[in-house]
Amino acid sequence: MESELHEVVSNKQVILRDLVESGSLKESHMLLMTGTAKLKVPEGSGNVVLLKNLFLSCNPSMGVRMRNMKVGNSALFFKPGLPISGYGVARVLDSGSPNFKKGDLVWGLTTWEEYSLIIAPGTLFKIEHDDIPLSYYAGILGMPGLTAYVGFFEICSPKKGETVFISAASGAVGQLVGQFAKLLGCYVVGTAGTKEKVNLLKSKFGFDEAFIYKDEPDLDAAIKRCFPEGIDIYLDNVGGRMLDAVLLNMKIRGRIAACGMISQYNLDQPEGVHNLMKIIQKRIRIEGFLTTDHFHLYPKFLELVLPQIREGNIHYLEDITNGLESGPGALVRLFSGRNIGKQVVAVAHE
Amino acid sequence: MESELHEVVSNKQVILRDLVESGSLKESHMLLMTGTAKLKVPEGSGNVVLLKNLFLSCNPSMGVRMRNMKVGNSALFFKPGLPISGYGVARVLDSGSPNFKKGDLVWGLTTWEEYSLIIAPGTLFKIEHDDIPLSYYAGILGMPGLTAYVGFFEICSPKKGETVFISAASGAVGQLVGQFAKLLGCYVVGTAGTKEKVNLLKSKFGFDEAFIYKDEPDLDAAIKRCFPEGIDIYLDNVGGRMLDAVLLNMKIRGRIAACGMISQYNLDQPEGVHNLMKIIQKRIRIEGFLTTDHFHLYPKFLELVLPQIREGNIHYLEDITNGLESGPGALVRLFSGRNIGKQVVAVAHE
């Protein structure tokens, strides 16, 4: 029986061929290669965990790490020739860590391959509640979910009755922030890139209003139409032109959580934001955050969100592609906005 | 004796001729006119105070109010044909308000003229300490002083040993923030537009380093030279290109207090800021504020700053022009950066 674990198996990997130097991310920037994996933690390797990856999350921040940006921190860039990494859901096959044992389900930072040796398992979280679809831990119950929680509740200190605007609202973070805001009694407007997504925001996620930003020649006017009295809270997932238009429409003491700037990740030169003077006149606070700084809030987040999911008060939409070989295409879909809901790659079904 | 107060006197005023539509503010945008004033609060006019203006403060925010900016709040614009207004120091000549009596010295919001009827004296503060030069209440002991206090202590929550960068550092707000930061034990660097100002920062105000931003082709490199480890706190008085370069050099969890964006007030179209993505990676907080929201802190501010001024631990440099007729020129000087220290107009000497 145990000898099975010593088996050497083939291990497909998504390798970064080259950093994106200019233009959009293409599938050809990545390469599917097949190596081998030994299904056992090497002897004496210490605190190491062997994972069988089940679901991988396509996260906008991966776009930053795949691009050779002059202003970026090059230590964060993915290394050409090596597999890319991100958050995912996995089964523990073997463990040298006292915190994990064979058979555990976990979510956390892993590598885009079938089997991963995790040297620093500090960013793995044990999955305690498996009555929920496991893929949810690559999204609403994983990093994007915690991001929505931190961005909305911790960074923006929302109050009942406030007005909330969300960009990239049908994405993993946006759909949850919108539902949190509705549960709190806020007025919520989202924007997305297609009619289908905008319809979903209203019909499935309960947004009060939504608009297709690509159809609006004047974003300022579109926002004013939805917020005649202005915006208290803006969850910014896109940056750029939308942020500029939002600055014109913030209320006094409005708060902007800078979650992401996906509109900028695929540009060679980031767009200029011109309306920052509004920050002073309107006493606006803009705050960036990384969810990794707030992992200690994960239990509190689960306590809030799990019952709401179970009772059907919070909905979640995923866009799952099948097989690791679908990964590069899924990432490209994300940056072109063609995904509907959280983009996930199913690597293996158990 | 009392009949003296009913006297009608001539009253010089600085009138806005036209809002600035494009280009820089010029003296010709203003007009000196002489009307008359009755040296008595009109019967039955209620809570009204008659002031004899002594000193007027040239404040960067006046530039915003003199310009027809598309993104501005037009309710804040000065009205062509009427005298402009700002903060100043004055003697109460007559009062219908229970809070002020004849002979009181006050600082607060007044009009650019010799005698002003103040309809809403809620923004006037009685001057209790006149062992300090009265002109100081148009600067270090008035709005700019309180702005420095709020921007540094309230918005940036500074800690001993942190690194602090200040733009327009020789101005009224900048010189005081720098001295507050040094008293707290911070490392302080300022930037200004001339060699003379930069020398003052180091010799008079005790800054650790200072540089002439106009002489630096690469602001990013200049900042990196002074802050190899990065910036914890940036007091932004200028916005634009400098803010963009600072964003590249902020430390993790750095704080930016948006006090002013003087580099933008004289532009027809504000410059774009391109490096806002840094806000996320570095978890930066940018917060705008208006000092008028923090008037309740004025006594606390005075308690801190008065002994330091009296003991010579805090220095203050003024650039005073004489006579209301020098006012338009003093304002233009401010926006061209030709003033050395706080730009004040002395209207009358008692």
From TrEMBL, chains A, B:
<keyword id="KW-0560">Oxidoreductase</keyword>
<dbReference type="InterPro" id="IPR045010">
    <property type="entry name" value="MDR_fam"/>
</dbReference>
<dbReference type="InterPro" id="IPR036291">
    <property type="entry name" value="NAD(P)-bd_dom_sf"/>
</dbReference>
<dbReference type="Pfam" id="PF16884">
    <property type="entry name" value="ADH_N_2"/>
</dbReference>
<dbReference type="Pfam" id="PF00107">
    <property type="entry name" value="ADH_zinc_N"/>
</dbReference>
<feature type="domain" description="Enoyl reductase (ER)">
    <location>
        <begin position="35"/>
        <end position="345"/>
    </location>
</feature>
<dbReference type="InterPro" id="IPR011032">
    <property type="entry name" value="GroES-like_sf"/>
</dbReference>
<dbReference type="InterPro" id="IPR041694">
    <property type="entry name" value="ADH_N_2"/>
</dbReference>
<dbReference type="InterPro" id="IPR020843">
    <property type="entry name" value="ER"/>
</dbReference>
<dbReference type="InterPro" id="IPR013149">
    <property type="entry name" value="ADH-like_C"/>
</dbReference>
<dbReference type="GO" id="GO:0032440">
    <property type="term" value="F:2-alkenal reductase [NAD(P)H] activity"/>
</dbReference>
<protein>
    <submittedName>
        <fullName>2-alkenal reductase (NADP(+)-dependent)-like</fullName>
    </submittedName>
</protein>
<dbReference type="GO" id="GO:0006979">
    <property type="term" value="P:response to oxidative stress"/>
</dbReference>
